[in-house]
User: Which sequence fits this backbone?
């Protein structure tokens, strides 16, 4: 598990949001982080972790009872993830635009 933070950043009018690099994209995490930085996001904190099924179920509990819940839990606990706390002006909407449509 790795944790880094950038406490020198003053958020000001920036929004903070959470981005999770999923297990299938873990190998591309550095390129993803570089893309975020090139798009004026500041990475305030970064943590690499391997979720247990219990932790994944807890995190995604709002999906409990839905058909995709078991697959979601299995998928998110199948390998390491990278959790990023990001900041940027209008950061939530800009991250959605950068990521593209949800599947």
Assistant:
């Amino acid at each position: 598990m790795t944790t880094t933070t950038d406490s020198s950043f003053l958020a000001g009018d920036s929004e903070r949001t959470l981005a999770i690099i999923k297990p299938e994209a873990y190998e591309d995490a550095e390129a993803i982080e570089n893309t975020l930085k090139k798009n004026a996001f500041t990475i305030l904190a970064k943590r690499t972790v391997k979720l247990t099924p219990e932790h994944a179920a807890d995190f995604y509990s709002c999906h409990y009872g839905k058909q995709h819940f078991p697959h979601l839990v299995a998928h998110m606990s199948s390998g390491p993830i990278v959790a990023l706390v990001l900041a940027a002006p209008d950061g939530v909407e800009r991250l959605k635009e950068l990521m593209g449509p949800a599947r």
Observations:
- The two ends are 28 Å apart (CA to CA).
- Residues 29-38 form the longest helix (10 residues).
- The CA atoms of residues 62 and 102 lie 17 Å apart.
